[in-house]
Structure formats: C-alpha cells, structure tokens
C-alpha cells in the first residue's frame, strides 16, 4: 500500500512542478501586454510596430508547434520543459537590457520559442501520469491554473515595472524562469516508474507520414478549428491590446486595467473545471459547448463595439468574463486530438491543434495594430480601437465554418465505427418523454 501512496504523492509533485513551469511561461508570454505602452515609449514604436513584437512572438510559437510535437514524441516532456523555461528566461534577460528595437524583437523571439516547448510538454505529463478518466479535468486545470501567470504579469510584474523600472522587472522575470527550469530538471519525469517505455523514435519519413495521418483525422481538424475559434480573442486581449484598449480606448486607469486582466484569469479558473467535467461526462456533446461559447463571445463583442465609447463598465466586465470562457473551451481541442488519435501520434496532433489559436492570435494582433495605425495614426483613440477590433469577425467566420465541416466528418467516422451521435433535438425529446432513461 505504501508504494502506491508514494506514487500518488509523486504524481502530484511532478504535476505541480510542470504546472509551475507553464504558469511562469504564461507570465513570460503575457508580460509584454502590461508593458505595451511603456514599450511604445521606450522603443518609440508605432502601433503596427508594437503589434509586430507580439506577432513575431506568436509566429515563432505557432510555427514551432508541429516540430515541437515531433520532438515531444522523440525526446519526452522533461527535456522540452527545461529547455523551454531557460530559453524564455534568456529572452526576458535580453529584453531587460534592450535599448533598441532589433534587440527587443530578438528577446520576444526567444520567449516565443521557449513558450512553444512548454505547454504541450506539460500536457504530455498529464496524459502520462493521470488515469484516462481524469485527463480531461486535469487538462482543464493545467490550462486554467497556468493562465494565472497572467496575474503575475498584471500585478507583481506591473508593480515592479511602474516602480523600480523596466530592467528590474524583466530581470526578476528571468530569474523566476531559471528557478522553475531547474525545478523541472530535478523533479519532472516523462512517465511514472514501471510504465512501459515509448516505442523507438520514428524515422523522418515516418514522422512526415504521422503528421499527414494526424491532419487527415477529422477529429484533429475539429480540434484545430475549435482552438482557433475560441482562444484568439481572449489571447489578443491579454497578450497585447487589452490594457491599451481599456486605458486609451475606455478611460480606465492602469490599475483598473490590471484588475480586469486578473478577472479574466479568475473567471477562466472557475469555468475550467466545470468545462472539463462536462467534457468527460458528455464527450459526444463537446462541440455544442464550443459553439455556445463562440456565439456568446461574438454577441458580447458586438454589443461592446455597437456602443459609442466609453462603453458601460458592466458591459466591459461582462466582455472580460466571456473572453475568459474561451480559454477552457479551447482546451476541448486538445481533448479531440487525444481521443481521435493513437498514442504514438498524440504529440503531433496536439501540436497541430495548438498551432491554430496562435496563428489566429498573431493574425488578429497584427490586424488590430495595422487598423489602429490607419484610422488613428500615431495615437490610440477610442474610435480607432472600435474599428480595429472588427478584424476579429473574419477569423470567427473561418473558424466557425471549419468547426461545422470537421464536426460533420468526425461524426461520419464515428458512425462508421458503430458510434451514433443522436441529434440534440432527439435527446431533448427523449428527456421530455422519459427523463430517467435519457440520463
């Protein structure tokens, strides 16, 4: 009994250190969001150039997702988490001393590269260490608790930034990154003791074949468009344009804007376990949750943009809460990748899915910056922000179409395997006529 107890304790220690690495990674990722206006003054950057910082960071992140998935299948999670943490720390250290635009851009490239190595590696730890029934919930908890790294950037990092200054803030962030990297090296292991070793690393031709097979799997494409549809709006808000929008576009103080980012994290943490449990209990109804959150996000954004600025505070609070739901909903995309792909292809499939939301995020981040520069050149005006945020609608339309098409094909494949997904109308009708049987 004692060895099993020790293994149980070790499971939680390994997960906690992996989670800490991801949490600090999110702090690195979002640190530029709270420093956006400071960076504009430090580097004399126009809106499009400021967007370029984050766009390049996200471009590096997104472009590395598939290679990282392949590396994860080959080298394991521990090595990638350690290298990712140290790479992000190096990026923050470069940013701390940067006095020119090219050096600052290099810093964000390093942050994007390290960030790319971290999240799906931590998810691999969850899949390897936890029982399959608990994986959806633990995936949600990992993603949502990890997002509290935004609080580290919105509160203590912002306080140091606006107190001691730019260099102490980013040196502190780098030190924290080194600490979690060393902790991961000491504690994290790819799989529990006694678990079977993974199969030998595939040859390059087999890797390419696995990527093609993963993409051809309709469940992977459903996860891809799910992640795209639900993640980018909240990501763009937290990563770059949320604080400038609230301060310059809606009249908030910097403290109030930081509080709104904290609310974004807290609301996501509350929703995450609920969404994870729903996913575990109703795996054939995951897409309805995705479509509901997508529709709600579009509706609330439309209401905010339809009101002449400044919008009512309660409406902006509602917007932030709804944006927070996008994070846990996007995690359903990883659940599709896990359940529709065999184990030896899951790293590649998760990498494909994770790429989607970040490609959308970098596209929208750049689009908002370009429109701001065109509508209100040299300034961040409320009306310019109002126009700039409309670039989201094109991405929502593309993602919605992708979800609907991929869902139909995924259901056809399930039916060919003997799993019939009843229509929502038939389920509701069954519950009305026979509630006990419907359950």
Number of discrete helical segments: 19
Task: Give the overall shape.
Answer: globular
CA distance, first residue to last residue: 37 Å
Which structural class do you get from the secondary structure elements?
mainly alpha
- CATH level-two architecture: Up-down Bundle
Which value, in Å, is the CA radius of gyration?
22 Å
* Percent strand: under 5%
The sequence of SSEs as H and E is HHHHHHHHHHHHHHHHHHH
The parts where pLDDT drops under 50 for at least 5 residues are none
Number of strands: 0
Total domain modules: 1
CATH domain class: Mainly Alpha
Mind describing the biggest β-sheet? Answer: none
What is the CATH homology-level superfamily? MFS general substrate transporter like domains
User: Considering DSSP H and I runs of 4 or more, what fraction of the residues is helical?
Assistant: over 70%
Mean pLDDT: 85
Write down the CATH topology: Growth Hormone, Chain: A
Structure in words:
This protein has 439 residues and is an all-alpha fold. It has one domain: Up-down Bundle (Growth Hormone, Chain: A), CATH 1.20.1250. It is built from 19 helices and no strands. Helix 1 packs antiparallel against helix 5 (101-129) and helix 4 packs antiparallel against helix 5 (101-129). The mean pLDDT is 85. It comes from Pseudonocardia adelaidensis. Its main location: membrane. The chain crosses the membrane at residues 12-28, 48-72, 79-99, 105-129, 141-163, 169-188, 224-247, 259-276, 288-308, 314-337, 349-375, 387-406.
């Amino acid at each position: 009994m004692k060895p099993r107890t020790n293994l149980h304790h070790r499971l939680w220690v390994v997960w906690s250190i992996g989670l800490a690495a991801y949490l600090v990674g999110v702090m690195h990722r979002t640190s530029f969001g709270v420093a956006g206006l400071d960076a504009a003054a430090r580097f004399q950057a126009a809106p499009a150039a400021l967007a370029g910082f984050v766009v390049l960071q996200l471009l590096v992140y997104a472009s590395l997702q598939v290679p990282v998935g392949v590396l994860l299948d080959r080298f394991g999670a521990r090595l990638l988490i350690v290298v990712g943490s140290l790479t992000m720390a190096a990026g923050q250290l470069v940013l701390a001393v940067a006095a020119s635009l090219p050096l600052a851009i290099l810093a964000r490239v390093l942050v994007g590269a390290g960030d790319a190595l971290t999240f799906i590696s931590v998810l691999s730890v969850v899949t390897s260490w936890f029982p399959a029934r608990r994986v959806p919930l633990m995936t949600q908890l990992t993603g949502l608790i990890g997002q509290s790294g935004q609080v580290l950037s919105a509160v203590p990092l912002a306080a140091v930034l606006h107190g001691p200054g730019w260099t102490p803030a980013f040196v502190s962030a780098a030190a924290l990154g080194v600490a979690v990297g060393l902790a991961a090296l000491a504690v994290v292991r790819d799989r529990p003791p006694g678990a079977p070793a993974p199969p030998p690393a595939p040859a390059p031709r087999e890797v390419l074949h696995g990527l093609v097979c993963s993409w051809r799997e309709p469940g992977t494409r459903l996860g891809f468009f799910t992640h795209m549809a639900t993640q980018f709006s909240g990501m763009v808000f937290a990563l770059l344009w949320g604080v400038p929008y609230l301060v310059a576009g809606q009249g908030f103080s910097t403290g109030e804007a930081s509080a709104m980012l904290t609310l974004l994290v807290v609301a996501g943490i509350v929703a995450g376990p609920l969404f994870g449990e729903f996913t575990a209990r109703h795996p054939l109804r995951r897409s309805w949750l995705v479509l509901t959150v997508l529709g709600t996000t579009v509706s609330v954004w439309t209401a905010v943009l339809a009101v002449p600025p400044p919008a009512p505070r309660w409406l902006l609070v509602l917007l932030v809460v709804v944006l927070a739901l996008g994070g846990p909903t996007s995690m359903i995309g990883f659940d599709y990748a896990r359940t529709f792909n065999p184990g030896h292809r899951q790293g590649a499939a998760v990498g494909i899915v994770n790429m989607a939301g970040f490609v959308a995020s970098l596209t929208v981040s750049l689009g908002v910056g370009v429109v701001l520069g065109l509508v209100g050149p040299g300034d961040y005006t409320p009306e310019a922000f109002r126009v700039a945020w409309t670039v989201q609608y094109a991405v929502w339309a593309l993602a919605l179409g992708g979800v609907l098409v991929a869902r139909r094909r995924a259901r056809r494949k399930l039916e060919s395997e003997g799993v019939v997904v009843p229509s929502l109308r038939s389920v509701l009708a069954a519950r009305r006529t026979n509630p006990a049987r419907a359950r």
